[in-house]
Specification:
486 residues, 7-stranded mixed sheet, 8% strand
Length: 486
């Protein structure tokens, strides 16, 4: 009886695999699931049969239910089998895991908010100052004794319902810095050298003074060292911000700028923001808190409205003092604002805090509310050509923003106040000085006024601050154009 010939244990040539033509020879033990040349290459990839039984030691393909794998999924143990399919499926799995992680993180954050009695306020709190809300702590927002925490309701380390350590991971897009993390790695703004940064922001082209038309005077910045303007422990920086179409000013306005240097120059840096600097501030940076800014700014039809939105966000970002170009010092001096004051508002004739001159610390919730109110007033306006600046982005938005600042802390107000210190969201405060009957006690509202101001505006080409809205209305007469329709 002839002895059965032992099957060869040597490697088979891929070119001779029966699956080389149609892909039938690939896979475990020569049973391929690939196609074409890929299947032919898999014929030699199966394990050799056992010498005693003549059977392959690998599981048969039938032991893998086909419903568990897509038709193109390789069941071969050979790393060279179907490399393109492997990469594609790994990418799909990776993307699915990343999406699951982010949606899980969002769901966790929302569930924490929903578990709190004051969920609406807490959501606004995270929008106002996310750096003040701990990352890993998600308690009920109250200290053990029932009082509010120093971060305006965020969880304390010993609060009840604490979940610290339960979810150590978070989205990379979360702007809150991790514990022990350098703030420079956060998405939130950090200004380690504020005067150098502001000087670069407002610098003229090529960093040199540009020539002015006849009759106008070039006005430069007045810059001091950081240790003078931003001393340790002081809340409101000693910086003054003024905006103008350009640095070329009439003699009246240049003289008024000189008054500020004379009064505050020993301790304050003074910056002139022209139109180019305002645009750089708006458009050349990422706004985590004001994502709608760039789109809404395109709907602003008057320079005055643009300047008002700019002042809120500038003081929100950098802190300091804002002054209208035509306002000047009266009683105010370098010692008027103390180190521990969070906001400093003179009272204007309407009985509300003045919007033409104010001072605040960086990232103050009141400034955030004012900016948001002004942006929403433009964004949801039925007709952007009809823009009463005083009501939409000016004193009206300023008043509503400060009302919201107190209402979010559970304090009801109509916005009309007397001199005093008022508390609002996050435990932050606002100090109001002066009398309604004497609004010029601290700051002279119109140091440059009357015909001199109108002539100066015309000479400086600043009629666009008021005339652009009328021109827009003339071009679109009879049409109603909303910002969201653009």
């Amino acid at each position: 009886m002839a002895k059965a010939k032992e099957p060869s244990t040597g490697p088979r040539s891929p070119a001779r695999s029966p699956g080389g033509a149609d892909g039938g020879g690939g896979g475990i033990g020569g049973a391929g699931r690939g196609s074409g040349a890929a299947g032919g290459g898999g014929g030699g990839g199966g394990e050799p049969p056992d010498r005693r039984t003549g059977r392959s030691s690998s599981p048969s393909p039938s032991s893998f239910p086909s419903s568990l794998f897509p038709a193109s999924f390789p069941l071969s143990s050979s790393p060279a089998s179907h490399p393109r399919c492997n990469v594609r499926h790994f990418l799909k799995v990776g993307l699915a895991l990343a999406a699951s992680f982010h949606f899980g993180w969002i769901s966790r954050e929302l569930s924490e908010l929903a578990a709190r009695d004051d969920a609406r306020v807490r959501m606004d709190e995270r929008m106002l100052a996310p750096e003040g809300v701990p990352v890993a702590v998600a308690s009920a927002g109250k200290k053990e004794g029932g009082g509010r925490s120093s971060t305006g309701g965020a969880a304390s380390a010993s609060g009840s319902g604490e979940r610290e350590g339960r979810w150590p991971f978070r989205s990379p897009f979360d702007p809150r810095p991790r514990e022990g993390q350098r703030r420079g790695r956060s998405l939130l703004p950090v200004h380690p050298r504020p005067n150098a940064e502001l000087s670069a922001l407002v610098a003229p082209p090529n960093g040199t003074a540009y020539p002015c038309p006849e009759g106008l005077v070039y006005v430069s910045d007045h810059v001091l060292p950081d240790d003078v303007t931003h001393p340790t422990g002081r809340k409101i920086p000693r910086t003054l911000h003024v905006t103008s179409k350009s640095r070329c000013m009439s003699r009246a306005f240049a003289s008024n700028a000189g008054r500020w240097v004379e009064r505050l120059g020993s301790k304050y840096s003074i910056y002139i923001h022209d139109d180019d600097a305002v645009d750089r501030f708006f458009y050349e940076r990422r706004w985590t808190e004001f994502g709608e800014l760039k789109e809404v700014a395109s709907c602003v039809t008057t320079g005055a409205a643009k300047a008002e939105i700019w002042r809120y966000i500038m003081i929100w970002e950098y802190g300091g003092v804002y002054s209208d170009l035509d306002s000047g010092p009266a009683k105010f001096n370098v010692e008027s604002i103390t180190d521990d004051e969070d906001v400093f508002f003179p009272l204007e004739g309407l009985g509300i805090p003045a919007q033409y001159w104010f001072a605040a610390s960086p990232r103050h919730p009141g400034m955030y509310m004012c900016a948001k109110q002004a942006l929403q007033a433009i964004a949801f306006r039925d007709d952007i050509s009809k823009n009463n600046v005083a009501k939409t982005t000016g004193p009206g938005a300023f008043k509503v923003g400060l009302i919201l600042f107190q209402q979010f802390a559970g304090i009801e107000t109509n916005g009309y106040v007397d001199a005093g210190t008022y508390e609002g969201e996050h435990g932050r405060t606002v100090k109001v000085v002066g009398l309604k009957a004497n609004p010029n006690e601290w700051i002279v509202r119109y140091r440059v006024g009357g015909n001199v101001k109108e002539e100066s505006y015309a000479q400086m080409g600043m009629t666009h601050f008021f005339a652009s809205g009328r021109k827009f209305e003339e071009l679109h007469r009879g049409q109603q154009i909303g910002c969201l329709d653009q």
